[in-house]
Design a protein that fits this description.
heterodimer; A: mainly alpha; Four Helix Bundle (Hemerythrin (Met), subunit A); B: 5 helices; elongated
């Protein structure tokens, strides 16, 4: 049995590590983010479903005049983004062991790569908008809806990472540990989404 | 079954046993719907979708995954056989979920077989 009946009473890295070792069930914050992820998965399920519904009802996909999606750069960028699941998970593991400095360094590394990914993707997004605007066809409409929604989720994830980094600058508490765990869960979900989105985006090349 | 419970995290076995078959049926249903839309849409002139082949593949994969989920539920049920379903967590909770899953999964296996068979037998792209 932990010396802290409530995880919120753990206000040092060592105390957080003791609480984490004694924990029998996942914290409520984890279940909250799990429900949030379920609703977001539904949103992307409908977007990807719409993409394929439109694709199956159009003989030419992409339509004439719209270039086929590029293969290499989206794959490389997605690979980089998915790789950040490693430092994010390490940050969670190290923080739950009381190793706050290491955890913050791993989270910072992940946030920098994620910000680079988003900057590059936004550049490509703006380039594509100029080349084939969303109002031009059903293809461009669903293409930009899907990519825009995913970029927005990456942006929210970066905000969460920065928020956790700022909050843990003054130390680790049970509450912040729960926040870090929830942020980690969200990032893994966004990375799985990235694979689904890039797979859908590149499906015309198959 | 005892081997599975020894080498696989019992928490994973419990959740896979509870939701595995249900999610498998959901996937079979959604993907089967997509295959039919692809077959009956104008893009089929290029894609050439074979509904029967897809439905057979989806049904056999679905049955295999649902049977795995049932095995997971039964292994948890066996490992917690000396615990009452109202007993203390985590064993009592696992026993309760495993009991519900072992019964529910049978229904999902039947649903997967019936919906797959119906989709294979029924000619596509026409109202019944």
């Amino acid at each position: 049995m932990s010396a802290f009946p409530h995880s919120g009473e753990a206000t040092t890295p060592a105390a957080v590590a003791r609480v984490e070792r004694a924990r029998l069930a996942r914290p409520n914050g984890w279940w909250g983010i799990a429900l949030f992820v379920a609703t977001e998965a539904t949103l992307f399920g409908t977007i990807i479903g719409t993409y394929f519904y439109l694709r199956f009802n159009n003989l030419h996909w992409p339509p004439p005049g719209v270039p086929e999606p590029k293969l290499t750069l989206p794959l490389v960028l997605t690979g980089l983004l998915v790789a950040t699941s490693v430092p994010v998970q390490l940050a969670v593991e190290w923080a739950s062991s009381g190793l706050l400095s290491r955890a913050r360094a791993a989270l910072l590394l992940a946030a920098v790569v994620q910000a680079g990914y988003l900057a590059m993707q936004l550049h490509l997004f703006v380039h594509d908008v100029h080349e084939f605007p969303p109002s031009g066809s059903a293809y461009s409409s669903i293409y930009f809806t899907m990519l825009g929604a995913h970029h927005l989720h990456v942006f929210v994830g970066i905000l969460l990472s920065v928020w956790i980094l700022l909050r843990t600058a003054t130390g680790l508490t049970g509450y912040r540990m729960n926040g870090l765990r929830a942020t980690g869960f969200y990032w893994h979900f966004v990375n799985v989404l990235a694979l689904c989105v890039v797979g859908t985006q590149l499906s015309p090349l198959a | 079954m005892r081997l599975a419970a020894r080498y696989i995290d019992p928490e994973f076995l419990q959740w896979f046993g509870l939701f595995g078959a249900a999610l498998t049926w959901t996937a079979q249903f959604v993907m089967g719907f997509g295959v039919t839309i692809a077959r009956c849409g104008s893009a089929n002139a290029v894609l050439g979708v074979d509904v029967k082949a897809w439905e057979i593949a989806l049904m056999t994969t679905g049955i295999a995954l649902a049977l795995l989920a049932e095995s997971a539920a039964l292994s948890v049920l066996w490992e917690t056989r000396n615990v009452d379903y109202g007993g203390p967590a985590p064993a009592g909770r696992r026993h309760f979920f495993a009991l519900a899953a072992a019964i529910g999964n049978v229904l999902f296996i039947v649903i997967i077989v019936l919906s797959g068979t119906g989709a294979i037998v029924h000619p596509p792209c026409m109202q019944s």
